[in-house]
Amino acid sequence: MNFKTVKHSIPKVDANGLMRGLPAYTDDLTDENALIIKCLRSPHAFAKIRSINTEKALQLNEIECILTHKDVPRIPITRAGQGYPEPSPKDYFILDEFVRYVGDEVAIIAGRSEKSVQKAIKLIEVDFEVFEPVLDFEKAENHPSIIHPEKEIYTMFPMGLDAQKNVACSYTNTMIVGDVNKTLAECDVALNHRYYTHAQQHVAMEPHSSTAYLDYQQRLTIISSTQNPYHTRRIIGEALQKPLRDIRVIKPRIGGGFGGKQQIHNDLFSAIVTLKTGKPSKCIYTRKEVFESTFTRHEMRFDIQLGADKNGNIHALDIQLLSNTGAHGEHALTTFMVAGSKLLPMYNKATALRFEGKVVYTNRCPAGAYRGYGAIQANFAVESAIDELAHKLQMDPVELRLKNSIKEGETSPVFKVMGEGGEGIEQKMESCKLDYCISRGRDLIKWKQKFPFLKIAPNKIRSVGTAIAMQGSGIPLLDMGSAIVKLNDDGFFNLLVGATDIGTGSDTILTQIASEALDVPIDRFVITSSDTDVTPFDVGAYASSTTFVTGNAVRKAAENMKKKIIQTGAKIWQIDEKQITFQNGILKSKDGLKTITLKELSEGLYYSFAEDMEQLIASGSNTSPKSPPPFMAGFVEIELDTETGKIDILDYVAVVDCGTPINPNLAKIQVEGGVLQGIGMAMFEDVKYSKNGRMLTNNMMNYKIPNRCDVKKLTVELAESYDPAGPYGAKSVGEIGIDTPLAAIANAIYNAVGVRIRTLPLTPEKILNGILKNEKR
Amino acid sequence: MKISLNINNQKYDCQIEPDETLLNLLRKLGFKSVKKGCDTATCGVCTVLLNENPILSCSYLAVRADGKNITTVEGLGKKADAIIDAIVNEGADQCGFCGPALILTVYALQKELKNPTMEDVNRYLAGNLCRCSGYEGQLRGIKKFLGVK
């Protein structure tokens, strides 16, 4: 299909300003007199504050405000930035008498200089009653220590919260298709293995930041590095018991999110300090605070049963899942459910499916949203198991996947049974090029020449491995986005969207969609996003929703504007609307007698059309019963050193079906960035704790993210695909890239040396131990 | 204490604290292109040029910069154009937080290394971490810009 603006790789609309370092991020925009906020944080993994004395600290010069749990409203909330009613337990208080992990907030201190605040922190005297912490998530249920003994916590709908047992939610007896036990027993080949995925840190380059002030109308304005300004406004209103009309949340530019900013963090502290003092304040986290006191990916344990007949037809898949949500249950239920809902439909030929499990509290850094959101964890377990099944069947793992994976026009019963937080919605795959992605990726990596391995030196083996993935495009009938288009004199448009560009380029692709729909050159648009006073509602940047959900809202708004422009032409020329065209920004009568440029039209509307003068403004909102999944096949080639167990990534091939890429360059970078984050998680990113529950990997020297020497090559291709439900055929692309590296690399290691690692990360130690163990046999 | 330094060819006389970092001083003076990312001299987003050489301003005391020439992206002006184009034409700027530091380091690389290989480029830029792009797109652009085969 031919488009004028869409499917073109234009530079990002904000590129130049950001690369030149113009003030754009939260900390660039703070008032220079803003009070500095820092927190006194818990040194204990689980304790109760017996007493807290702030007198000495308050006497310091420059200290303006110290808040403890006695000074703040006690309203149970969830910090998760999600729709409403929230699918996460309301188990968080701004400050509490309990501290539930090392780094948990004990007190909030605000002062006029950073040094005075640091000094004040040291002068606060706290007497803790220390409890035995729950650090091992497999021992959390029914542990003698109860992490949330408080009476007030609740859920907005039933999700199996059982705080007395440290269970945040549970999900059983629902996602069952067919008779799993019976079908498994009838299978020629069956396997049953346990897999572990570890926590991961987002490590967005910009630390979590917020600033607050009261405007001249005494309204609270919060500038925050948030992925969801509207949810932030709602949650802060709830926590501080303020009407939402008194709160404005602005998201400026954000230095990366990846889910890490899909919760409220220090925005709440800035808000409460400004309300208490009446003064502007700011809270910019240190990297240590980002590591210890924001969120990680949920650690998970999977028990997978998989069965097939001897011809490689998969008949049964059973997933029993235990997830670790840490000290609070943000995103606990939904990440858990996505582990099933974004995985099971991929193997839709199976007639028996089951997905069950629990999410437990522990005294660790809370877990929250992170790109991949459950799907990546399940991908490691199931895509490893698929390869193990292929090995048992003596079948090529690529053939096994081609045979069993979902195809265009097909469906899966899972879509209906489970969604995110509750029931899902049935949907048919109107676009699914997964089979193409698999076969194209197989060619690009030269699978047939390289599978399973080539020995290139006495101690060096090269091998290949694969995994496939699906994600979603927003949450059906829960996510909503909207847009406003406004015509100004000089013939340019404001495009107002609530959508949240967190570095993904959504401001750019939404402008491209508006330009395409209105048929006006892209330089005639100015986009403003994410200001709750100015822009229309949007759920925010999560669940791979913006391109699909907000993109269609922008398209509707632009099409409505086009109608209004044509109606205006009909009025001023006194002819029928059908006799008018609007193309490339020029309004014409079909007979060619009348022509008016957008500049002339807009000036007439503002100044000279007399009774026809009008502000043209159009809007569009969108929600969808569909969430067409993007699909991807990942292929890796590794070089493994059999003496050290070290592996190098020689090439990672990703072939992705994201529908029409609105901006092919940006779509490709989303995949490349996702793949590298996945490789980081697979190989060396690991959140480690001391035996007392203190995070050992609380800085970027100990927590290693990939640098540019760690991977030799990434090869990303986008499949030709068009989904009729998406704007100009587009589906999402933000998350899918991260899902496959875990299993693909694990499978490549097995193909190289016959070592199956079922516990992430895939470290040289585990590989070498496996090699040595195999040699002993 | 008082120091005097040249920032982007302008003289600045500054009153500083003895333990103040160059990063804090530059941000205070309005050079917001210099970012604070990790506090441990690991991520590279605070990179500036000190007498033409890239340094990490988060771990460099302001007092040491007394009498020195500092360049930030604001000071590169038109000299940054081609490097910026190289990155943004690939869409590899993404969130932009690490961008100004990368531009400066590529600028320094171009001056320092003659006929670099891709491996030289990767090594030179290894301290400039990016969490969004996966590096591949940045390298496509930088490769074209430097004419590396």
Write structural notes for this entry.
The complex is a heterodimer of chains A (777) and B (149). With 777 residues, chain A is α+β, with helices and mostly antiparallel strands. Chain A has three domains: 26-131 and 208-284, Aldehyde Oxidoreductase, domain 3, CATH 3.90.1170.50; 299-475 and 626-776, Aldehyde oxidase/xanthine dehydrogenase, molybdopterin binding domain (Aldehyde Oxidoreductase, domain 4), CATH 3.30.365.10; 479-622, Aldehyde oxidase/xanthine dehydrogenase, molybdopterin binding domain (Aldehyde Oxidoreductase, domain 4, 2-Layer Sandwich). Chain A is built from 19 helices and 27 strands. The N and C termini of chain A lie far apart (59 Å). The model of chain A has no long low-confidence stretch (mean pLDDT 97). Chain B has two domains: 2-75, Beta-grasp domain (Ubiquitin-like (UB roll)); 78-146, [2Fe-2S]-binding domain (DNA polymerase, domain 1), CATH 1.10.150.120. Chain B is built from six helices and five strands; from the N terminus they run ββαβββααααα. In chain B, helix 3 (81-88) packs across helix 6. The radius of gyration of chain B is 15 Å and the shape is elongated. In chain B, 54% of the residues are buried. Chains A and B meet through helix 1 and helix 17 of A and helix 3, helix 4, helix 5 and helix 6 of B.
Task: Write a compact overview of the structure shown.
The complex is a heterodimer of chains A (777) and B (149). By secondary structure, chain A is of the alpha+beta class.
The number of helical runs of chain A is: 19
Overall domain count of chain B: 2
Main β-sheet description of chain A: 7 strands, mixed
* Cα radius of gyration of chain B in angstroms: 15 Å
| SSE string of chain B, helices as H and strands as E | EEHEEEHHHHH
Fourth CATH level, the homologous superfamily of the largest domain in chain B? Beta-grasp domain
Give me the Rg of chain A, rounded: 27 Å
Order the strands across the largest sheet of chain B as they lie in space. Answer: 2-1-5-3-4
Total strand count of chain B, please?
5
Structural class based on helices, strands and sheet pairing of chain A:
alpha+beta
Question: First CA to last CA of chain B: what distance?
Answer: 50 Å
CATH class of the largest domain in chain A: Alpha Beta
| Weakly predicted, low-confidence segments of chain A | none
Report the end-to-end length of chain A measured between terminal Cα atoms: 59 Å
Q: What's the average pLDDT of chain B?
A: 97
| Spans of at least 5 consecutive residues with low confidence of chain B | none
Oligomer: heterodimer
CATH topology of the largest domain in chain B: Ubiquitin-like (UB roll)
